[in-house]
Structure formats: structure tokens, C-alpha cells
Amino acid sequence: MDLVFRDAEVVDGSGAPSYRADVVVKDGRVACIVKEAAAAGCQRPGAGRVIDAEGLVLAPGFIDMHAHSDLALLRDPDHSAKVAQGVTLEIIGQDGLSYAPVDERTLGEVRRAITGWNGYGEDIDFSWRSVGEYLDRLDHGFDGEGIAVNAAYLVPQGTVRMLAVGWEDREATPQELDRMRELVATGMREGAVGMSSGLTYTPGMYAKDAELTELCRVVAGYGGYYCPHHRSYGAGALQAYEEMVALTREAGCALHLAHATMNFGVNKGRAPELLTLLDEALDAGADITLDTYPYTPGCTTLVALLPSWASEGGPEAILARLEDADTAVRIRHHLEVVGADGCHGVPVEWDTIEISGVSDPALASYVGKTVRQSADARGEEPWVTARRLLVEDRLGSTILQHVGHEENVRAIMRHRVHTGGSDGILRGDKPHPRAYGTFPHYLSRYVRELGVLSLEECVAHLTSRPATRLRLPDRGLVREGYRADLVLFDPATVAAGSTYEAPRTLPTGIPYVLVDGRFVIEDGRRTDVLAGRAIRRAG
Q1: Bridge partners of residue 353, in order along the sequence
Q2: Dihedral angle at the C-alpha atoms of 245, 248, 253, 256, nearest 10 degrees?
Q3: Contact 497/34 with Cβ under 8 angstroms?
Q4: pLDDT in tens, 418-456
Q5: What is the rounded CA–CA span in Å between residue 280 and residue 287?
Q6: Rounded Cα–Cα distance for residues 319 and 278 (Å)
Q7: What are the residue boundaries of the Amidohydrolase domain, all occurrences included (predicted)?
Q8: Contact 518, 532 (CB under 8 A)
Q9: What is the pTM of this model?
């Protein structure tokens, strides 16, 4: 036997009460579980190594259902931002924009479009073009050794539309729709677990429901799921949720609602309305799950706030419009008076928009301040400041958007189909603390301190529920024969170290994390193990 966790408090991911046991790991799997081993006075399992787990909880590794590590996994072999949290699997390709499938034209376009999320990628060898080639690149990782944690991929609908249609705000022709169907089908055949959309991001937002329904039919045919960042999380949020439920019911496709929040002042206290909508759909037979992060602010790029018409044509067209004085006046009117669709139909409040990162280091003085604070310091209107930053940073600035409500966060995380997703953007000088802290924050703040969830419930939300959505037959539970993706943590001390002031501080109280039976965190420190691989669609 390779390893024994002795006298661990096992929270197995099922939601059932915890139990005390010795857990044996061999050849990358849970080989044996001996319950109440000490009390029974039985022969204790032996191994090459025994870890005294007295007072510690052994759980399945956490699954981050909404991650933006598409390039970070290939840039940073350490990847402690996620490893140290106990994350053993990330779902990438989110929000309809990622790096496969692409051709020579669209690779450059998508790199520009999501520089704020992942950087431009000057340090990355973009040797792939297809989904399958990207997954192979993840398998290879660093010098053939792999990557820090496992990763599954969603075909990004915005990138697919970029390939077939371009950046125009128009309906796809029948021939273009056929090409999109085939691109999605090819990505699914090559191992993607579903399809994502970013319906407040261009060019994916230009797709009408009929187009999305046809693509979801393809996803459903391969047993995948649709993961939309839907059309509004502000004004019209409930209608946007209803749209996604109806669309996927029509397509016969499973639905996973990304970062399922109810934000902005118009939605304060309205989470119960969303949950009623979901319960009615679930009771009628819909296949729905959702993810959230346990914080109130959101995080995106500054350019994402612009109205969709201002973003048509891609990054260079956006910059040209911003540099044209008359067009800039129109953009400002839509942002500040009308409520741009990029800002979820709500007039922007500049004192809620905090700059969290810039691509150009010369603009670092903006970071950590709201747009209004920077504007006041310059003696100018906030729009003038925002426009200057967009142009000078070539659309590469990221923001924290302080528009959430704690009561909504708590209500949604209690729901029966809830899972955890960090939505963590790892770039920028002052990223959202959720990137480094989501999973321990659930365990400390919402389990230990507030009791919003029991420990067993919370672990189930973060492990077996995601594994079920992903159709993984041997992950998400501490069970004999299952993969030894495991986390051992102290329930009395586990906590997120990351804060808004120090967002890259690592968690405490998580001394051991295993990926495929190998220590990636050992005695609280990152090892050099690269045990992660691409997790391809089952079946």
C-alpha cells in the first residue's frame, strides 16, 4: 500500500454525515476505507507512508465549475492560486471566449479580446488550433509532465461565431449556421464537456435564441451541457434566466447557469424569485445546475461595459469608435443614461467600478481606485477617465464591479442544484480575491462562521454535484475505486487568505492536496508534482 490517512474525519462528498476512518490510497485511487478503525481494534492498514489525520477532514478534491485558467495552466506550473485551495479540477473555456477552435485570423482576435482575462499570451506557444489539439497541449503541459490540476473544456460559442460569422451584429446565414454546428460537434467529439456563451460579450451576444438552440441541440446529442453567461444579471435578469431555461428545454440540452447571481440595485432581495423559477423548471423535468462564488462584487473587463453596437467589428473597431468624439458621446449616453446591454441594462455607477488590473504597467496608478476616484483626482468627469483608460490600455483593463447583495449570495448558495465556481481572473495587479480564495471561503465564512451550509452540504456542492454534471464516473466522492483527487483540511482553521487589499494571499488550514494520488500540496507547501491532465467528455 502506498499511503494511509489514519483517523481522518471523512466527508465523502455525498452529503451524508461524516465518519471516522482510515483511507488507503494506492496507484492513484482510493484502495480501501476502514471505518472507525481505531475504535474497532482491527488490524490497521499499513502503507509506505502513514499520515496522522486526527482532527482533519478528508474530502474529495474541489471542482471549480467556472475558471479562467485557460493560459495560466500553460504559463504557471506552480498554479498555487487553485492548488492551494484544494481545487483538483477546473472547467475552462468559459463565457463563450477561449482559444480553440481557432484559425490564424481568429487566434489573434481572441487573444486581443480577452487580454484582460488571461494576458495576451506572449509567453505561450500557441501550437494548437482545434479543441483536441488544445486538450493534447494540456496533457503535455510542462516538458511532458502535465499541468498542476485537471482541466475540462467547454466549446466557446463566441469563438465559434467569430470563426463562422465574424464580429458582425447580424443573423448567421444557413451555411454559417451549418459551419457552427460542425465546429461545435467537432469540439464535442474531441473531448469538450459542453458549450459556453458570453451573451453580454461580443461576438457571441449577437446570436439570437434560434441560433443558440440549434447549437445546443448539437451539444445535447453528445451528452454535454450548455453553460451561458446570459444576457443580463441586472435589469431583466429574471427574463434572461427564463430565456436560458426555455431555450435549453426546447433543445433538450442540460443547462448549467454560470455565476448565477442577481446583481445591481434593481435585484436586491430578489434571489427567491430566481429560485422559484428554477424549482418550477426542475419539478417539470428540466436538467439544471448553477454555480456561484461566495462574494458580492463581480469581475470583468472595462470594455465589457460598452453597448454591443460599440463593440461590433472587434477590438480595433471599438478603439476607433472610442477615439471618435461624436461616437464617444453616444457611447457615454448609453452607459450613463440608457443603461448599456454590456452593463446589464443598468446605467453605470462609476463609484462601483474599481480598476483591478491594467495591461500597460505605466497605467498602474489607476489600480485599486474606482473610476470616480481617479476622475476626481484629475478634476474631470468619470467618463473622460474611463475613455482615456480604455484607449491607452488598448482595452486590456480589468475591473471589480461592486454591485452584489449578500442576502442574494446566501440564498442562492443554499439551493439544491448549486455548485461552486470561482470565476477567478488571475491577471492584474489587484485581482478579485475569489481567484485565490473561493473554496476555503465557503468552508470558513459560510460553514464555520455563519452556518449557512453544513460542512457535509458544502462539500457536496463543491465535489459530487459538479462531478455528476460533468458525468465523471470516478471523481467527486471518497469511495473505494475512485480517483484519489483528495483534500485534507482543518475545519477549525481553514480560511481564505486572500482579501481585497491582498488578493494573492494563499489559504490556511489545507495541509494536503492530492491529484491522481500524488501530493501537489504536502505539509502546506506546493510540491513540484504536475499530475493534472485534460479530462475529456465521457462516452
Answers
A1: 401
A2: -40
A3: no
A4: 999 999 999 988 999 999 999 999 999 999 999 999 999
A5: 12
A6: 40
A7: 49-521
A8: no
A9: 0.95
